[in-house]
Amino acid sequence: MTETDQIQEPGGARAGATPSRRAVLGWGGAGLALGAAAAGGAVAVATGGDERAAGQAAGGAVEFHGAHQAGIATPVQDRLHFAAFDVRTGDRAEFVRLLKDWTAAARRMTAGKAVGDGAYGGLAEAPPDDTGEALGLPPSRLTLTIGFGPSLFGKFGLAGNRPAALADLPKFPGDNLDASRSGGDLCVQACADDPQVAVHAIRNLARIGFGKVAIRWSQLGFGKTSSTTPGSQTPRNLFGFKDGTRNIAGTETGRLERFVWVGEGDGGPDDAWMAGGSYLVARRIRMNIETWDRTSLQEQEDVFGRDKGEGAPAGKAKEHDEPFLKAMKPDAHVRLAHPDANGGITVLRRGYSFTDGTDGLGRLDAGLFFLAYQRDVREGFIPLQRRLAAHDALNEYIQHVGSAVFAIPPGVRDANDWWGRTLLSEEA
Predict the structure, then answer these.
(1) What is the pLDDT of residues 195-227, one digit of tens each?
(2) d(CA 70, CA 57)
(3) Which of 60, 182, 223, 327 has the most CB atoms less than 10 A away?
(4) Strand locations in 149-289 (E)
(5) Is 158 left (phi over 0), alpha (psi -120 to 50) or beta?
């Protein structure tokens, strides 16, 4: 878990698609809000109000095409289904065909359409193309974001194309990583305002990939842990503290370019395929809920460096007051993770809370599924987490139990483009 002041998440989203017929008829649910232009064809949501209400007016669809993938700078939706996949095929052409098929399916699902020829009406003797559980539901601002893990570059002759910025994460103090919840050749992040829409998307991509890829692990999430729209209420994490107080606004395109998007000149010539992309660190962070719930309010506030009610930094009156770091305890989370204490390190976060039942001992298996995007993992998450893992008072109440890192390629430009083209096409 990383400091709520420090980790940035813009309100940027892509230019909205023309509303579908069903959208015009007035679907309920959330979707895109109108806003100012953001980097790479994204549209910044700056409604100054509730994202879901703004989404209703826009029809609930997020544009799939753009210079950057949706689901990064897009306003954070309410629900998450994240899946990591292992590649089973050794045939490069078959893998490329899969990515093209996935792109076609993602293009339809994010527009609120069924996969292929739909869930019914086809040959009775054959399975339908779509599983059907999202029939009649709006797009719910569904975004699908793909990433390539380090292990993928050991396949298909891609070893020379692995970017140096896609660094293996070191073992940090306190890590207790479960191999069955870590790593993966591929990832797909599905975010939506309806959990059924997000689950439907991952289910159908896994179905299309049967025999070529297999799900390695997955995570459901709820309750976005960062606010993305200026003026909206800051959400709270499962410890009850406001999270994401000082997020970057979607109109701050300069900060996106500086901290999130990979530049044309980043890395060597073999890394040019990543221009316009980003790098994702995913961490499953278990919260020791029962221990925290028996901790005094004063200690809770000292651990974070903020008060629990207003969210104001220590010694200040209002949530958005500029923190005075020396007023906090030396091991306070905010003090250790703030950019002023870390040479300006800034990452963009899209984390979600999770609860996965109990652990067999009557304790909640709950916490934060941390998602952080950055321009270079070596200059973002790694140095920041080294500092936090060694000194943060919050470590008494959390433990990192799952981990993965992925290269997120640039966006799908148009109807003829496909996920991973810049890496895998012969022309590239």
Answers:
(1) 999 999 999 999 999 999 999 999 999 987 664
(2) 20
(3) 60
(4) 186-192, 213-224, 278-287
(5) alpha
